[in-house]
Amino acid sequence: MNKTSPPERQEKTHQPGSEDAMHPAPDYMPRFSGSGRLSGKTAIITGGDSGIGRATAVLFAREGANVAILYGDDNETEDAEETLDRLREEGAKCFAFKGDVADRSIAQKLIADALDRFGGIDVVVNNAAEQHYQEDLTDITEDQLTRTFRTNVFGSFYVTQAALPHLRQGASIICTTSVTAYRGQPTLIDYSSTKGALLAFVRALSANLASKGIRVNGVAPGPIWTPLIPASFPAEKVESFGTDTPMGRPGQPNEVAPALLFLACEDGSYFTGQVLHPNGGDIVGG
Fold first, then answer.
1. Is 191 an active-site residue?
2. Could you tell me the pTM of the whole model?
3. Which SS3 state, helix, strand or coil, does residue 196 take?
4. How confident is the model at residue 91 (pLDDT cuts 50, 70, 90)?
5. Active-site option among 28, 71, 158, 191
Protein backbone atom coordinates (compact mmCIF):
# COMPACT_ATOMS: atom_id res chain seq x y z
CA MET A 1 0.00 0.00 0.00
CA ASN A 2 1.33 3.40 -0.97
CA LYS A 3 1.31 5.63 2.11
CA THR A 4 0.98 8.70 -0.09
CA SER A 5 -2.32 7.53 -1.58
CA PRO A 6 -5.46 9.33 -0.41
CA PRO A 7 -7.58 7.46 2.11
CA GLU A 8 -10.13 5.23 0.44
CA ARG A 9 -13.52 4.35 1.85
CA GLN A 10 -15.93 1.93 0.23
CA GLU A 11 -19.58 2.10 1.07
CA LYS A 12 -20.55 -0.54 3.62
CA THR A 13 -23.16 -2.06 1.34
CA HIS A 14 -21.65 -5.51 1.48
CA GLN A 15 -18.75 -7.49 2.81
CA PRO A 16 -15.98 -8.11 2.04
CA GLY A 17 -16.00 -5.19 -0.39
CA SER A 18 -14.71 -5.00 -3.96
CA GLU A 19 -11.08 -5.58 -4.84
CA ASP A 20 -11.67 -4.06 -8.25
CA ALA A 21 -12.58 -0.75 -6.60
CA MET A 22 -9.48 -0.54 -4.39
CA HIS A 23 -6.82 2.11 -4.92
CA PRO A 24 -4.06 1.19 -4.79
CA ALA A 25 -4.87 -2.34 -5.92
CA PRO A 26 -3.69 -5.16 -3.65
CA ASP A 27 -0.72 -7.19 -4.84
CA TYR A 28 -1.94 -10.76 -5.19
CA MET A 29 0.09 -12.37 -7.99
CA PRO A 30 2.72 -14.94 -6.96
CA ARG A 31 6.29 -13.71 -7.01
CA PHE A 32 7.97 -16.90 -8.19
CA SER A 33 7.54 -19.70 -10.69
CA GLY A 34 5.70 -22.80 -9.54
CA SER A 35 7.36 -26.11 -8.75
CA GLY A 36 4.40 -28.51 -8.85
CA ARG A 37 3.97 -28.73 -5.09
CA LEU A 38 0.19 -29.18 -5.46
CA SER A 39 0.19 -30.99 -8.78
CA GLY A 40 -2.94 -33.13 -9.13
CA LYS A 41 -4.44 -31.83 -5.89
CA THR A 42 -7.81 -30.14 -5.47
CA ALA A 43 -8.27 -27.16 -3.16
CA ILE A 44 -11.45 -25.55 -1.84
CA ILE A 45 -11.01 -21.88 -0.87
CA THR A 46 -13.83 -19.92 0.73
CA GLY A 47 -13.67 -16.19 0.17
CA GLY A 48 -11.47 -16.99 -2.80
CA ASP A 49 -12.67 -14.14 -4.97
CA SER A 50 -10.51 -11.42 -3.41
CA GLY A 51 -7.87 -10.57 -0.84
CA ILE A 52 -5.93 -13.38 0.79
CA GLY A 53 -8.29 -15.91 -0.77
CA ARG A 54 -7.57 -14.70 -4.30
CA ALA A 55 -3.80 -14.64 -3.74
CA THR A 56 -3.94 -18.16 -2.31
CA ALA A 57 -6.08 -19.44 -5.17
CA VAL A 58 -3.68 -18.09 -7.81
CA LEU A 59 -0.62 -19.42 -5.98
CA PHE A 60 -2.21 -22.86 -5.58
CA ALA A 61 -3.07 -22.85 -9.29
CA ARG A 62 0.52 -21.96 -10.17
CA GLU A 63 1.61 -24.94 -8.08
CA GLY A 64 -0.63 -27.27 -10.10
CA ALA A 65 -3.85 -27.49 -8.08
CA ASN A 66 -7.45 -27.64 -9.26
CA VAL A 67 -9.20 -24.80 -7.44
CA ALA A 68 -12.80 -24.19 -6.38
CA ILE A 69 -13.58 -20.80 -4.86
CA LEU A 70 -16.66 -19.82 -2.89
CA TYR A 71 -17.85 -16.21 -2.99
CA GLY A 72 -20.81 -14.58 -1.32
CA ASP A 73 -23.17 -12.78 -3.69
CA ASP A 74 -23.63 -10.78 -6.89
CA ASN A 75 -21.60 -7.88 -5.48
CA GLU A 76 -18.54 -10.12 -5.59
CA THR A 77 -19.14 -11.64 -9.03
CA GLU A 78 -16.74 -9.28 -10.82
CA ASP A 79 -13.94 -10.13 -8.40
CA ALA A 80 -14.71 -13.84 -8.69
CA GLU A 81 -14.58 -13.70 -12.51
CA GLU A 82 -11.27 -11.84 -12.37
CA THR A 83 -9.88 -14.54 -10.08
CA LEU A 84 -11.07 -17.29 -12.43
CA ASP A 85 -9.32 -15.53 -15.32
CA ARG A 86 -6.06 -15.56 -13.39
CA LEU A 87 -6.50 -19.23 -12.44
CA ARG A 88 -7.09 -20.22 -16.06
CA GLU A 89 -3.99 -18.29 -17.11
CA GLU A 90 -2.08 -20.50 -14.67
CA GLY A 91 -3.52 -23.55 -16.42
CA ALA A 92 -5.78 -24.63 -13.57
CA LYS A 93 -9.07 -26.41 -13.76
CA CYS A 94 -11.31 -24.20 -11.68
CA PHE A 95 -14.79 -22.95 -10.90
CA ALA A 96 -16.49 -20.38 -8.69
CA PHE A 97 -19.52 -21.17 -6.56
CA LYS A 98 -21.79 -18.38 -5.37
CA GLY A 99 -23.45 -18.73 -1.97
CA ASP A 100 -23.49 -17.78 1.68
CA VAL A 101 -20.81 -19.69 3.57
CA ALA A 102 -23.02 -19.39 6.66
CA ASP A 103 -25.62 -21.62 5.00
CA ARG A 104 -24.88 -25.29 5.65
CA SER A 105 -26.59 -26.38 2.43
CA ILE A 106 -24.23 -24.14 0.43
CA ALA A 107 -21.22 -25.86 1.96
CA GLN A 108 -22.66 -29.24 1.06
CA LYS A 109 -23.39 -28.18 -2.52
CA LEU A 110 -19.92 -26.66 -2.92
CA ILE A 111 -18.24 -29.88 -1.85
CA ALA A 112 -20.55 -32.01 -3.99
CA ASP A 113 -19.79 -29.85 -7.02
CA ALA A 114 -16.04 -30.08 -6.44
CA LEU A 115 -16.23 -33.85 -6.11
CA ASP A 116 -18.27 -34.10 -9.29
CA ARG A 117 -15.82 -31.94 -11.24
CA PHE A 118 -12.48 -33.04 -9.78
CA GLY A 119 -13.11 -36.43 -8.19
CA GLY A 120 -11.63 -35.63 -4.78
CA ILE A 121 -10.57 -32.96 -2.30
CA ASP A 122 -7.12 -32.55 -0.80
CA VAL A 123 -6.99 -29.05 0.71
CA VAL A 124 -9.69 -27.01 2.46
CA VAL A 125 -9.00 -23.34 3.13
CA ASN A 126 -11.52 -21.68 5.44
CA ASN A 127 -10.88 -18.05 4.61
CA ALA A 128 -14.25 -16.29 4.17
CA ALA A 129 -14.80 -13.57 6.76
CA GLU A 130 -16.52 -10.31 7.55
CA GLN A 131 -15.83 -7.56 10.06
CA HIS A 132 -17.64 -4.42 11.22
CA TYR A 133 -16.00 -1.42 12.86
CA GLN A 134 -17.70 -0.45 16.14
CA GLU A 135 -16.13 1.74 18.80
CA ASP A 136 -18.50 0.66 21.58
CA LEU A 137 -19.53 -2.86 22.56
CA THR A 138 -23.10 -1.69 23.09
CA ASP A 139 -23.31 -0.67 19.42
CA ILE A 140 -22.85 -4.26 18.27
CA THR A 141 -26.36 -5.38 17.38
CA GLU A 142 -27.63 -8.90 17.76
CA ASP A 143 -27.85 -9.11 13.98
CA GLN A 144 -24.21 -8.04 13.54
CA LEU A 145 -22.98 -10.40 16.24
CA THR A 146 -24.89 -13.33 14.79
CA ARG A 147 -23.85 -12.56 11.24
CA THR A 148 -20.15 -12.22 12.08
CA PHE A 149 -20.08 -15.51 13.97
CA ARG A 150 -22.09 -17.32 11.30
CA THR A 151 -19.78 -16.19 8.51
CA ASN A 152 -16.46 -16.52 10.28
CA VAL A 153 -17.02 -19.54 12.54
CA PHE A 154 -20.12 -21.44 11.45
CA GLY A 155 -19.02 -21.25 7.81
CA SER A 156 -15.68 -22.86 8.66
CA PHE A 157 -17.46 -25.63 10.57
CA TYR A 158 -19.94 -26.27 7.77
CA VAL A 159 -17.39 -26.43 4.96
CA THR A 160 -15.05 -28.62 6.99
CA GLN A 161 -17.89 -30.94 8.01
CA ALA A 162 -19.01 -31.31 4.41
CA ALA A 163 -15.49 -31.99 3.15
CA LEU A 164 -14.25 -34.25 5.94
CA PRO A 165 -15.80 -37.56 4.78
CA HIS A 166 -13.95 -37.11 1.49
CA LEU A 167 -10.52 -36.19 2.86
CA ARG A 168 -7.84 -38.85 2.80
CA GLN A 169 -4.56 -39.29 4.62
CA GLY A 170 -2.28 -36.41 3.70
CA ALA A 171 -5.09 -33.89 3.32
CA SER A 172 -4.77 -30.42 4.80
CA ILE A 173 -7.30 -28.08 6.44
CA ILE A 174 -6.24 -24.45 6.90
CA CYS A 175 -8.12 -21.68 8.69
CA THR A 176 -7.45 -17.97 8.35
CA THR A 177 -7.53 -16.65 11.88
CA SER A 178 -5.94 -13.28 12.77
CA VAL A 179 -3.49 -11.42 14.96
CA THR A 180 -6.65 -10.11 16.67
CA ALA A 181 -7.19 -13.60 18.11
CA TYR A 182 -4.04 -13.06 20.17
CA ARG A 183 -4.10 -9.39 21.13
CA GLY A 184 -7.65 -8.32 20.31
CA GLN A 185 -8.77 -5.21 18.45
CA PRO A 186 -10.83 -2.67 20.40
CA THR A 187 -13.02 -1.67 17.44
CA LEU A 188 -13.45 -5.22 16.13
CA ILE A 189 -14.57 -7.01 19.28
CA ASP A 190 -16.93 -9.51 17.69
CA TYR A 191 -14.53 -10.17 14.80
CA SER A 192 -11.64 -10.74 17.21
CA SER A 193 -13.82 -13.17 19.15
CA THR A 194 -14.56 -15.19 16.04
CA LYS A 195 -10.90 -15.39 15.18
CA GLY A 196 -10.17 -16.65 18.69
CA ALA A 197 -12.80 -19.32 18.14
CA LEU A 198 -11.09 -20.38 14.91
CA LEU A 199 -7.77 -20.63 16.74
CA ALA A 200 -9.37 -23.05 19.21
CA PHE A 201 -11.01 -24.89 16.30
CA VAL A 202 -7.60 -25.45 14.69
CA ARG A 203 -6.09 -26.77 17.90
CA ALA A 204 -9.00 -29.05 18.80
CA LEU A 205 -9.61 -30.44 15.32
CA SER A 206 -5.92 -31.05 14.70
CA ALA A 207 -5.79 -33.34 17.72
CA ASN A 208 -8.98 -35.04 16.61
CA LEU A 209 -7.71 -35.81 13.10
CA ALA A 210 -4.01 -36.44 13.65
CA SER A 211 -4.44 -40.21 13.79
CA LYS A 212 -6.13 -40.10 10.38
CA GLY A 213 -3.19 -38.31 8.81
CA ILE A 214 -5.18 -35.13 8.16
CA ARG A 215 -3.38 -31.95 9.18
CA VAL A 216 -5.17 -28.86 10.54
CA ASN A 217 -3.35 -25.54 10.79
CA GLY A 218 -3.94 -21.82 10.58
CA VAL A 219 -2.48 -18.51 9.53
CA ALA A 220 -2.93 -15.40 11.65
CA PRO A 221 -2.29 -12.41 9.41
CA GLY A 222 -1.65 -8.95 10.74
CA PRO A 223 -2.87 -5.88 8.82
CA ILE A 224 -3.22 -6.95 5.18
CA TRP A 225 -4.43 -4.68 2.37
CA THR A 226 -7.65 -6.45 1.34
CA PRO A 227 -11.19 -5.28 0.46
CA LEU A 228 -12.27 -5.79 4.07
CA ILE A 229 -10.25 -2.74 5.10
CA PRO A 230 -11.80 0.08 3.03
CA ALA A 231 -15.19 -1.64 3.33
CA SER A 232 -15.20 -1.54 7.12
CA PHE A 233 -12.87 1.15 8.51
CA PRO A 234 -13.31 4.94 8.56
CA ALA A 235 -11.21 6.79 5.97
CA GLU A 236 -8.73 8.16 8.52
CA LYS A 237 -8.08 4.60 9.77
CA VAL A 238 -7.59 3.36 6.22
CA GLU A 239 -5.00 6.07 5.60
CA SER A 240 -2.81 4.92 8.49
CA PHE A 241 -3.64 1.21 8.21
CA GLY A 242 -0.70 -1.02 9.08
CA THR A 243 1.74 1.79 9.85
CA ASP A 244 1.91 0.79 13.52
CA THR A 245 3.58 -2.55 12.74
CA PRO A 246 7.34 -2.92 13.25
CA MET A 247 7.73 -3.00 9.46
CA GLY A 248 5.74 0.23 9.22
CA ARG A 249 3.32 -0.86 6.50
CA PRO A 250 0.43 -3.20 5.81
CA GLY A 251 1.12 -6.54 4.17
CA GLN A 252 -0.04 -7.61 0.75
CA PRO A 253 -2.14 -10.71 0.03
CA ASN A 254 0.75 -12.34 -1.83
CA GLU A 255 2.83 -12.05 1.35
CA VAL A 256 0.34 -14.27 3.17
CA ALA A 257 -0.47 -16.85 0.49
CA PRO A 258 2.94 -18.60 0.68
CA ALA A 259 2.23 -19.46 4.32
CA LEU A 260 -0.95 -21.24 3.22
CA LEU A 261 0.94 -23.02 0.45
CA PHE A 262 3.51 -24.28 2.95
CA LEU A 263 0.75 -25.69 5.15
CA ALA A 264 -1.12 -27.17 2.19
CA CYS A 265 1.75 -29.07 0.61
CA GLU A 266 4.25 -31.70 1.72
CA ASP A 267 6.66 -29.01 2.90
CA GLY A 268 4.44 -28.69 5.97
CA SER A 269 4.00 -32.41 6.56
CA TYR A 270 5.13 -32.22 10.22
CA PHE A 271 2.88 -29.27 11.04
CA THR A 272 -0.50 -29.75 12.66
CA GLY A 273 -2.29 -27.66 15.28
CA GLN A 274 0.05 -24.78 14.42
CA VAL A 275 -0.46 -21.17 13.35
CA LEU A 276 1.87 -19.13 11.14
CA HIS A 277 2.06 -15.37 11.68
CA PRO A 278 2.56 -13.16 8.60
CA ASN A 279 2.06 -9.91 10.51
CA GLY A 280 4.92 -7.50 9.83
CA GLY A 281 6.78 -8.25 13.04
CA ASP A 282 4.03 -8.06 15.68
CA ILE A 283 5.11 -10.31 18.57
CA VAL A 284 2.14 -12.32 19.77
CA GLY A 285 1.79 -14.96 22.44
CA GLY A 286 0.09 -18.31 22.40
1. yes
2. 0.92
3. helix
4. very high
5. 191
pLDDT in tens, 142-177: 999 999 999 999 999 999 999 999 999 999 999 999
Domain that holds residue 54: 42-276
CATH number of the domain to which 175 belongs: 3.40.50.720
Position 207 in a domain: yes
pLDDT given at position 176: 98
25-51 residue pLDDT tens:
889 999 999 999 999 999 999 999 999
Which one, of 217, 106, 95, lies nearest residue 161 by Cα?
Answer: 106
Identify whether the C-beta of residue 48 lies closer than 8 Å to the C-beta of residue 69: yes
What pLDDT does residue 23 have? 74
Tell whether 12 is covered by a domain: no
- Whole-angstrom distance, CA of residue 139 vs CA of residue 153: 21
234 located within any domain: yes
Position 72 in a domain = yes
**What are the C-alpha distances in Å from 85 to residues 81, 91, 271?**
6, 10, 32
